[in-house]
Amino acid sequence: MNVGEVDILVGVPTFNDAKTVAPVVQAIRAGLLKYFPRQRAVIINADGGSKDPTQELVRAASITDMVRAANIHALRTLHCISTQYAGGAASGTALHTIVAAADLLRARACAVISADSLSITPEWLEGLLRPVHRESFDLVTPLYRRHKFDGLLVRNLVYPMTRAVYAKRIREPHPPDFAFSGRLAGHFLGEEIWTQDIARTGAEMFLTVSAITGGFSVAQSYLGPKARVEHSSSDLVPAMRQTVGGLFWSLDPNFAFWSAQNGSQAVPTFGADYEIALEPLRVNRKHLHQMFVRGVADLEPVLKTILSASTLAELQRVAALPEDDFCYSDELWVRTVYDLAAAHHKTVISRDHIVQALAPLYRGKTYTFLAQNREAPAEELERNVESLSQTFERMKPYLLEQWNGQK
Amino acid sequence: MWQIVVTELTQATHEIVAEIARFLPRLVVMLIIVLIGWGAAYLVKWILRSILRLAKFDRLSQHAGAAQLLHKADLPSPTELLSRFVFWLAWLAFILIGVSVLGIVGLEEHVARFFGFLPRLFAAFFVFFFGLLAASFFSRAALLAAVNADLPSPQLISSTIYTLIILLAVSMGFEELGVAETTVVVAFGIIFGALMMGLALAFGLGGRELARRFLERRFSREKKEEREDELSPL
Fold this sequence. Notes:
The structure holds 2 protein chains of 2 kinds.
Chain A: E1 8-14, H1 21-35, E2 41-47, H2 54-60, H3 64-70, E3 78-84, H4 91-104, E4 109-112, H5 122-133, E5 139-147, H6 152-166, E6 168-169, E7 178-181, H7 182-189, H8 199-213, E8 218-225, H9 236-251, H10 255-258, E9 265-266, E10 269-270, E11 275-277, H11 285-298, H12 300-306, H13 309-319, H14 330-346, H15 351-373, H16 378-394, H17 396-403
Parallel strand pairs in A: 1-2, 1-4, 2-3, 5-8, 5-11, 6-9, 8-10
Antiparallel strand pairs in A: 4-7, 5-7
Helix pairs in contact in A: 1-5, 4-7, 4-8, 6-9, 6-16, 8-9, 9-15, 11-15, 13-14, 14-15, 14-17
Chain B: H1 2-54, H2 57-64, H3 66-72, H4 78-101, H5 105-148, H6 154-177, H7 181-206, H8 208-219
Helix pairs in contact in B: 1-4, 2-5, 4-5, 5-6, 6-7, 7-8
């Protein structure tokens, strides 16, 4: 099949996603047909070696019934290519495959859609691609309507720290669904991250950082509800490697940029504003508190080498409090994260171990967040997140002190 | 007869004086070699210390856990300790060369054996050091994994792994040095085998119920609706 050059490329990274990929690809096809009927478009499925019929389902995903019912006529052939990349399943490798394909095909606008985005509608394609295709933005990250207790790692760490360090208020700096320009794709392919191990897991985070530090125009687009995906507690460490590991790693090569930034700026937003769903959710907070307390005690030999003495002492004092009085304050959380970022920079111990050591401490912060916001309405929760973000910004000089080795 | 005694005594005295006269220059040469050796050893120590500082050997030792061990024993830093060790080793080598110049037959053999021993000493040192590094890394990895998986007694798991790797490194080091080879290897085999047997029995007999509950929790698909919701971090 000779695809030639395209105007729009949509990438779908997959690995054993047979349960969810077909409706996602159908929605992508419908969206491209409805909103970009005149554009030359291709869907690239980058698969990590699925053992189930994911790739077959991608190729077979059809929207014939929908087209007939809506009386839509395709003006261009929509190609769908499914390919397997080498080296085992890794989101970073899948992203590299998609970005390389975009560069090869000289796509003007590209999007990446996660294979488990079950709440996707055809309007997502318009929301993500229009700002790139028509308004010349280089990176468009999503805004979702999410449950108030979903994505807490992003809310409590990744978003506020990215905002404080890189001075851009991007709510989803590690986006599962996003769009980018061909110009950014070419720039991103030339980054040194691809020679590092972190490229396998943290590439999405680095794409956002690369767009900010490279002076590319960034926007956000409201997509709608994001379906909750089932997770087990064992998914936390891989999630931290992808997000926090990628964010910490990006600080070294971009030190000159972020050390000169002060405050933060909002990015243009398309569509409705950020929304929070408030349905009740049963969460085992006690277990979170127990894991935090045990983590601080058992990991003391490790924490001694990567945290400052005052931060560790304060953590131990907080861990000794009864559950009812427990509170992991914003200032202590920011000091903890910044100490770990500095330890990551100095490679005091293995960098992956530093990221893993953050997991039980994050559980303590999650406990406090859940306790403080259990009955909180959306506005109050947003105020709390804004307050945490401002604490990250205000304490940036502390990060620079720790980074340069001053105590 | 008295004349013969005097003659023999005189001859013996002449021979002793001649021996001393032959020995003294060799002694002087030995002392010169020892002095030069001191200077050379000091130079080697200075060069090694500079190289180790450039290579950030102290930081590597911290990762290995060696720096902390030395600090607890009130010993100098790893760079300083290694530099001093090499200084004394180098000077000892020159002293032995000087001693071999004296021409004392029995000593020459020991000097040769010492120089043959040196490569094995350095190999054993590397085995110990990298064993310490591996023990530190893997025990920390096990500790973190056990804490994040909410396993019971993560510090016990970590210490066990640390001890096993150190035992292995020490056994390999002593085998390299040729010190009580058979004893060390057999002792290590017995300890390791006993530990594994003990763990197998403990898990097989004592941990049956725990293992059953763990596997049920991990793989059971029943009563899902009664579980609390798991938070999605991303």
